[in-house]
C-alpha cells in the first residue's frame, strides 16, 4: 500500500531502493496530492541511490533529529514550545522549500498574535539554528536562506510593585501561585523553579541549590531560603516524591503558559513575562539596600555587568558622596548675594 488514510490525513509508505522504509504524513486530506508527493519522494529516493543526488529532507525530519541531539539543553522545553507553533507553517514542508519568503511569513504570523519583535526573533533564531545544522553538520541542504531579524529595543528591566505582585498572585491558580511566590523569594529562573527537586533542598538548613549543569552561567548556585520560600516549600511537601512543584501529579514543563497570560490580562498587567519575576526580585533587593556584589552572588550572574542594570533603582550608596558638592554650591550662592 503506497498511500493510506489515517483519520482525515493521507500517509505515504514505501521502501526505497537502498532498503530504507519510508513512512510519513503527506500533510494533506486530498488523495491526489498525497499520490503526487509519494511519486516524487520515490523518484528522489531512486536518484539518491543511483545518481548520488542528496535526498530531499523534510522539516519534520530535521525537528526530530534536532530534538534528539539537543535533548540535554536546559532550554529544550522552550524549543519544543516554539516548534509546536511552527508546525502549522512548516510541518509539511521540505527543507529546500524554506526560503526567505516563508521566514517572513513566520515573522508576520507571530507579530499578528501580538508578540514582540524579540519573541519573533527567538523563533527565527531556532529555525536558523536547525537549518544551519542541516547544512553544516548533517549535509542535508546546500544553503540557508538569508534573512534579517527584527529590530529590538535595548534590554528592558520590567518589574512589579509589591501591590501589583499581590494582585497577580491572587489571580494565579494555586500551582502557579506557589511557583511565582518562590520565584519572587529566590530569584530563580523559570527552568530552575519548574525543575527543582527535593534532592536540591535542605529544609533544616533553609537552603537550596542549583547544580552547575542546570545553571545558565554553568556554575552552581547556592540559594538561601527566606520565610516566604520556606512557607512555599512546606506547602508542597508530600505532593510528589521527586519534584517540588507539580500539576495534577506530574512535573511542570512551562510556567508562563495560558493560565499565566490569563491572570495578567485579568489584572491588566501588560508587557510582563515570567522571567520578569526575576527582574522584580532583583529590583526589590536593590531598593531595599542589597549591595550589587551580594545580588550578583544571590542571582548566580556570571559578571558584575549583569547586575549593573539594577543600579539606577537605588541611590542610597551615593548619598554620602552627594554632600561633597555642598560647600561649593553654598559659596556660589553667597557670592551671588554679594554681587
TrEMBL record:
GO terms for molecular function: DNA binding. Keywords: DNA integration, DNA recombination, DNA-binding. PROSITE patterns: CB, TYR_RECOMBINASE. InterPro entries: CB (IPR044068), DNA_brk_join_enz (IPR011010), Integrase-like_cat_sf (IPR013762), Integrase_catalytic (IPR002104), Integrase_recombinase_N (IPR010998), Tyrosine_recombinase_XerCD (IPR050090). CDD domains: INT_Rci_Hp1_C. Transmembrane segments: none annotated. Residues 57-135 form the Core-binding (CB) domain. Residues 155-323 form the Tyr recombinase domain. SUPFAM superfamilies: DNA breaking-rejoining enzymes (SSF56349). It holds the Pfam family Phage_integrase. Belongs to the 'phage' integrase family. This is Integrase. It comes from Methylomonas denitrificans.
